Amino acid sequence: MPYELFLALRNLRARRTSRRRLTRATALASVLGIAFGVAALVVALALSRGFRDEMRDKILRGTAHVTVMRRDGRALPDWPALVRSVREAEGVADAAPTTYDGALLSGAGTSSYAVLRGLDPASPRAVAELRRNLVAGSIQPLLDEPSPFTNSEGVETSPGRRIEKSPITSFDEIPSEAATPSAVVGSELAARANLRVGDLATVVSGEGVLTPLGLAPRFRRVRVAGLFQSGLYEYDASWVFVSLNTAASFAGMDEPAASVISVDVMDIYAVEQVSARLRERLGPEYTTVSWQEANRPLFAALELERRMGLVIIALIILVAALNITATLVLLVVERKADIAVLGAMGARARSVMLVFVTEGAIIGLVGIVLGVALGLAACFVGDRYKLVSLPADIYSISNVPFHARAVDVTLAALVAFALCLLATIYPARAAARLRPAEALRES
Predict the structure, then answer these.
(1) Confidence of residue 164 (pLDDT cuts 50, 70, 90)
(2) Are 421 and 317 in contact (CB under 8 A)?
């Protein structure tokens, strides 16, 4: 064992005397202060990462990893072939056509803004995701309903084959209940519109149709087949799933149509590379939007919050680490004679300095170990019992999980250890500068 380490351990284990009580008290205060500071930093980083992960997962459950659309915003021509081409691209796990249209959903005497999203029954991943979020009813009526695009023989038309079809412009023209399409409504939206499974609701399109009497809105009655809850308030409070053909018909199309292609990638953090491949594959007429690009302001704000939390709690740890400075100053004053003897025996100033740096590092390590254990225990309890609850209509999620990762725990420990070493510099330098003769004469 190096004699610097031996002397550091011996000083910390010295016998209790009246002169040592104050030193022990300050050392204990240092350990406890660092422990609580590290625990706070571990909890803060786990909470920040948990909020970020929860927001990311909720967003990706409802939206695509990459969205493909035309630059001019029009409907996609020959979208079945386009979907097949997208699925063949490297890094793509699946692709499904869909639509997004603004509308007004009216229930039992109340109305609310809604977003109609078209669901392709031939997309297994999209159907499975909606089934997983279903909390009431069933999505089977939506999957089994006949297409509104049929010719005189009752055969469904395909993209590119048009049929003449007059738009619905008044309540008198709304189809009979037997022909009413099905819809799966967000739980928050259903509560706001006072709708339950089996109820009929009226959907009013945000885009009108030109009639001899002027511009008139489009109407459509739908039957609530089920309720879904994704966990993200914005989706649960506004989304209404209908079949892709029903959404196209409601938007005034006279053929099956899709406005965007939702793409799922194999690696959610490689979306930029996949987006570049898709743009190159599809040509300049198409553009892509990744989930990172669409939510960049949100995640940038969360990252800034995480960094500021790290800095603020690091300052708290620094204040706690200053107790190490006080402890070592008291040790230097108490051990003047011993330091003088070491110098007279030929110990270098660097070795004397290393003795006190080692003492401060040992005190810091004990506090860090206790702090990490305390922080991980707090994260476990908080995550198990969901102690951090939030109003979903403000923060989008109802509770925040604690995601303690090894990289964050290591970061907290390294920050605390660096601050502890910084706190040892002044007393260690003071001990190294003591002159043996003067120290022995004063003692």
Answers:
(1) very low
(2) no
SS3 291: helix
**What SS3 class is residue 254?**
coil
CB 262 within 8 A of CB 64: yes
Which region holds residue 35: left if phi is over 0, alpha if psi is between -120 and 50, else beta? alpha
| Nearest CA among 182, 99, 168, 176 for reference residue 137 | 182
Question: What are the tokens at 341?
Answer: 């003897």
78 φ/ψ sector (left φ>0, alpha ψ -120 to 50, else beta): left
Distance in angstroms (rounded) separating the CA atoms of residues 365 and 27: 12
pTM value?
Answer: 0.80
Angle at alpha carbon of residue 288, lines to 285 and 292, rounded to 5°: 165
Lowest mean pLDDT among 331-340, 353-362, 433-442: 433-442
Is 442 exposed, middle or buried, given 0-12, 13-18 or 19+ CB atoms closer than 10 A?
exposed
DSSP state of 175: P
Residue type, 290: S
pLDDT band of 10, cuts 50, 70, 90: confident
- Residue ranges per domain, the chain? 3-59+298-442, 65-293
Q: Which residues pair with 307 in a beta bridge?
A: none
The C-alpha atoms of residue 408 and residue 413 are separated, in whole angstroms, by 9
Q: Are strands 111-119 and 100-106 parallel, antiparallel or unpaired?
A: antiparallel
Q: Classify 215 as helix, strand or coil.
A: strand
HEC readout, 315-353: HHHHHHHHHHHHHHHHHHHHCHHHHHHHHHCCCCHHHHH
Whole-angstrom distance, CA of residue 414 vs CA of residue 398:
33
Q: What are phi and psi of 61, to 5 degrees?
A: -70, -30
Bridge partners, residue 113, by sequence? 104
Highest mean pLDDT among 132-146, 219-233, 333-347, 367-381: 367-381
Pick the closest to residue 413 from 361, 355, 353 (CA basis): 361
Residue 420 corresponds to which tokens in the numbers above? 């502890």
* Closest by CA position to 252, among listed 189, 162, 315, 130: 162
What six digits make up the tokens of 212?
């001899």
